[in-house]
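Exercise 7.
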Amino acid sequence: MNWYFLLKSGPDGARSNYPKMKKRFLSLWFRHLTTDWLTLRRPELRDTPFILAAPERNRIIAMAVNPVAELQGITVGMASADAKAMVPEIQVIDDIPGQNYKLLKALGEWCIRYTPLIAIDMPNGLLMDISGCAHLWGSEHDYLKEIVTRLRSKGYDVRGAIADTAGAAWAIARFGRVKPIIEPGAQAEALLTLPPTALRLEPVVLNRLQKLGFYAIKNFITLGRSVLRRRFGSEFMLRLDQALGIEDEPLQLLQPVEPYSERLPCLEPVRTAEAIEIAIKTLLVNLCHRMAGEGKGVRTAILKCYRVDGRIIQTGIGTNQPTHHVIHLFKLFELKISTIEPALGIELFTLDVPKYEDVSSDQEALWSPEGCGLTDTSLAELLDRLANKIGAGNIHRYLPQEHYWPERSFKPAISLKERPATSWRTDRPRPSLLLNKPERIEVMFRIPDYPPSLFIYKNKIHRIEKSDGPERIEREWWIEDGEHRDYYQVEDEEGQRYWLFRLGHYTGDQSKQWFIHGFFA
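Solution. The predicted structure, written as tokens, is:
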């Protein structure tokens, strides 16, 4: 066997189990995002200068420029007419509104295999909280090299940088020229030689800084805070403090992290069912240990398998009552393993619990063999396995309701925990299977007020050997008007028993009065 797992939870839901770690951020900058995407779709454009253009203020403006056109002096924001004057052979292609967001979202979802904390950084970047993740690839250098190399192999021109703050990482990725990884605590020194635009400032503020001759951050960073705030505003100070680490910068995550979530990266791609089983067991052990310590249990769990080819295979389970029993949860996932197609291999497994509930102390005691009835955990486990195999919608439990009319005398239960408000009626026999709606039958009888001697149901003749009744059930007049029913239990020559009724008093028109309503076991 040649698979290996990094048996370490990611920095998401399990972060509270580890000592508080220093924050580290990774910024990815896709220099030619939309033009790279179009070149991948149309390879004939690879060596051709082209721009993606859109109308703006009565002019056609270049919204994106491919590297070939860029080398010939074409820039973003240039009018397409000017671009054509400079490079006559340039192609002008209509820009697709919102395409860069769609691409960043897809790239961000692919990058979740490296960290769950990813934010879209419009118009051409991603910001990633990588705290506690890089060591899983050996070092920050190896981590960054792995991500950038794989994205470039997909056809995207990307640069990346790592620092203590998202602002510093963003600045180094776009304007840094020395090294892409800034040591912890060294972001202030790394920012000194960069231009003010590296702080993500508004154009008005940048123009003001340029007029004052501040062409690098070191030119103004030594000025007093009150002076900077008075001259350039509070938004300027916020951006500066975020880059230096004085102020936190919250990320709008692409996928919010579930409170209970586990990650399992693989050193080598997983391709066998046995390896997938090991991964699921490892995730469940880590997850259930946490949940048991906090008195929580799984109601819904989602397993995601990130494949080498970029596809994400997802499967999930549900339980009738909250549980952190590893063996039981694994048996539910075991039913799903055959649907997981590893293809070239799975490089990351994640297990999320979007729905969970408190596990009471009484319920924990039920894991012992003494449990019985509806409170027996083995029954809940059996129902969970059946529900995950044939579908939860095919399993029902019913509770009694205080109604005389048979169709209203029961209701579906929400869960195994729900208790009936009243008892089942036992003084009169009731069929084990009640039809949702009574069905008309043809009958023959000797005396009008007696039960039928035979009836025809679905073109089959049933000759009645035994019968009992009638049991009169009056219509619930406070709910609806209508006639009463006279019910009979009958048994045919094959020993099958049925619940028949005549609607109202005998009128002579028997074809419209007799119905079948249920079947006895």
